[in-house]
Amino acid sequence: MNMIDLIKSRRNIKNFKTDQVDETMIKIWLDAAAMAPNHRMTEPWEIYFIGPETRGTLNHKTNFGNAPTLMAVLSKHGASKVETEENAAATACFIQNFNLAAWSEGVGTFWSSIGITEQKRALLNVPDNYDLLGVLAVGYPEMIPDPKPRTPIENKIKYLP
Ligand SMILES: Cc1cc2nc3c(=O)[nH]c(=O)nc-3n(C[C@H](O)[C@H](O)[C@H](O)COP(=O)(O)O)c2cc1C
To answer: What sequence ranges are listed for the domain Nitroreductase (predicted)?
Structure first.
């Protein structure tokens, strides 16, 4: 599949098969994801694999679509507000790299913000100097939804003088 088709075919998956995803493959996708652009090479991302005990405490309404693998993705704060924002942008690039690498092998992801509250941060042991960018559920899709239409890109473009 070429890159455009890969990007356009990806979906946020909400129902997964229970089949395990090979951890070696997940590590390969994470390793590729880490090639994300990041200002000053801060590499701000951290990945916490969420075990069954912690998962239970999250009390998610669909149990993350029964995905077999769950990871929290954190982004380290910078020395200033701008650096913290840049780090979060880099970590979002990291997540999308991961999503696309997994998708290229038929594995789907569900990016959930899980309502990022202090309580959720505590359950996931997120240190004070990290943002919680979300929880990624990873697994083989049970169902692939139709694409959600996007605004024509021409409507999003401005030309500055
Ligand atoms: C930062 C972020 C947080 C998200 N949190 C949630 C969420 O909590 N629940 C959810 O159903 N989808 C969540 N999504 C996924 C979006 O809802 C989804 O990408 C959007 O509906 C478009 O669907 P698509 O990715 O299949 O094209 C999140 C996406 C991002 C980027």
So the answer is: 7-55, 58-140
Q: Is 9 in the pocket of ligand 1 (CB under 6 A)?
A: no
From the CB of 62, is ligand 1 less than 6 Å away? no
Counting Cβ atoms within 10 Å, is residue 2 exposed (0-12), middle (13-18) or buried (19+)? exposed
Domain count of the chain? Answer: 1
Q: Residues 26-47: pLDDT tens digits?
A: 999 999 999 999 999 999 999 9
Task: Tell me how far apart the alpha carbons of residues 89 and 151 are, in angstroms, rounded to a whole number.
Answer: 22
For 129, the domain range is: 14-144
Residue 122 lies in a domain: yes
Residue 161 lies in a domain: no
Residue 39 counted as domain residue: yes
State if residue 12 touches ligand 1 by the CB under 6 angstroms criterion.
yes
Ligand 1 neighbour 139 (Cβ under 6 A): no
pLDDT digits 0-9 by tens, 117-130: 889 999 999 999 99
Token digits of residue 4: 């455009």
Q: Ligand 1 centroid vs 14 CA: distance in angstroms?
A: 10
